[in-house]
Amino acid sequence: MTLLHALVGFALVVGVLTLVPGIDTALVLRSALTRSRGNALATVLGVSTGIVVWGAAAGVGATAVLAASRTAYRLLTLAGALYLMGMGATMLWRSWPGRAQAAEPERAGGTSHDAVVEAGALAAEGAPADSAWRGWWTGALTNLLNPKVCVFFLATIPQFMVTGVPPLAMGVLLALVHAALCTAWLGLIALGAGWAGPRPGSSAVVRWTDRVTGGVLLAFGGRLALQARA
């Protein structure tokens, strides 16, 4: 297999998977509808950053080590489950009418508990709700804490290795292909959905977007938690 054949073949595989809606799609839609196109695009770049990190890890065999260690994989799964469930619960809590009005000043100042849950680090705690940094961190952390991404790269990257190309370089190249497709598709979603919000008087859209996205994150996180216990 030549390098070109490997890159094209991998692009065909991940291209189809990229079109399937998932957690990343839900987060980008939520950012575009409730915050800004800039925040949504930053979230897209964060997701792509996570993809590249996972690709590099797969290239050097880190994902194989993680998958081989039941304890390590359980810890990653549990961390991802708690993160998603915490973010989903916060969205649902903030979406109820009484909390929605109280949250308006927090959205402007970025000092709410939502900042801690979504960012996962003190560095993002003081950032405005629609800041690019906060969007990037949310996208990256969500992707990096998703064990399904680890399993995907563990299963696919070795199939597209090319003789003569260092594993780390090949892993990064394949991940860059995936990241480029992901950025293009999710970027289109962010730009398209961004035209619908946020606008003055669109608090109902914001509330229902948070409810739907929060429910999706809670359900996905709950399923991960059950897998961690299995």
From TrEMBL:
Main localization (coarse): membrane
Cell location: Cell membrane
GO terms under cellular component: plasma membrane
Transmembrane feature ranges: 6-29, 41-66, 72-93, 168-196
Pfam families, per database record: LysE
Keywords, ordered alphabetically: Cell membrane, Membrane, Transmembrane, Transmembrane helix
A GO term, aspect molecular function: amino acid transmembrane transporter activity
Record carries keyword Membrane: yes
Protein topology in the membrane: Multi-pass membrane protein
PANTHER family named among the record's database cross-references: ARGININE EXPORTER PROTEIN ARGO, ARGININE EXPORTER PROTEIN ARGO-RELATED
Name of the featured protein: Lysine transporter LysE
Organism annotation: Actinomyces radicidentis
